[in-house]
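Lecture notes, unit on protein representations.

Consider one protein chain, 327 amino acids long.
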Amino acid sequence: MTEATAWPGSVPAPVARCEAGGGKGEGDAEEGPKGRRQGAARARWKLLREVLKKKHLKDVHLRQASIRRFASFNLFSAEACKRINEEETGTWVQYTSVFYPEYSVSLRCNNGLLDIEDVLTSFDNTGNVCIWPSEEVLAFYCLKQNQMFRDLAVCELGGGMTCLAGLMVAISADVKEVLLTDGNEKAIKNVSDIIIRNQNAGIFKAQTVSSRVLRWDNETDVSQLEGHFDIVMCADCLFLDRYRASLVDAIKRLLQPTGKAMVFAPLRGNTLNQFCNLAEKAGFSVQRHENYDEHISNFHSKLKKEEKDTYEENIHYPFLLILTKHE
């Protein structure tokens, strides 16, 4: 794995940021790192018991335990959208790039409430409640580097309820094809509706934009698209031990021989390093970038100094990984 130069080339967003779900492994609550983790764990188990018993969350501490406190690098703004017709459901927001305001897309976001049956039976629900900071950064990076996608076939893996990054490619780049995927059927139903609404608005530059359920550990899902894509990208998908090796395998098989993968993810303990090790063993050359954008690096430094109670770089600051196949 090598350190190299990245590929060449503030407005709050309260509506689209969920305040439910605890998130992808972060801790909050009590004083001190260990105390915060233990307090958060106890609170979340109590929260789960309350949900299972179908009780109301009257305890303020319980409600706070479910809040993902750091939400955004302030790269996008969000404004509520009017419903086009009475049949539309859910909360629609207009998501606009702060740095590239000519690029804007309509999203339907989860209101933060998950059916307990979904939590217990569905494939990975983490992307169904929030747009995570890594996804936001990937989406911004795609806009900044949109020329890299010209005439290529692009796939986003694990894009959750919105696949924001893939949508930014579809509206900003002269790209041949964009496929938006997630392993969760409920997420992809929402993404499909998002595609339809934005297609009707005529904002896509991509020749083809589509969505489908794609589980990294499902042989049929992966084999049907084997060797099809020039670029595969994902954000904050490395933390699940059970699926990490499957993700590496899926990326390798989905890419053309000369293709590249672009992965944004925080350290999350040793999970990013574990992914890099698996990728190298699978035959990838891995380039790892900590400083890939001046604004994000500066904002990251500011957050570390001024938002110590809410911002933890281990779980919030995404690194950029570029994976290429060995020839």
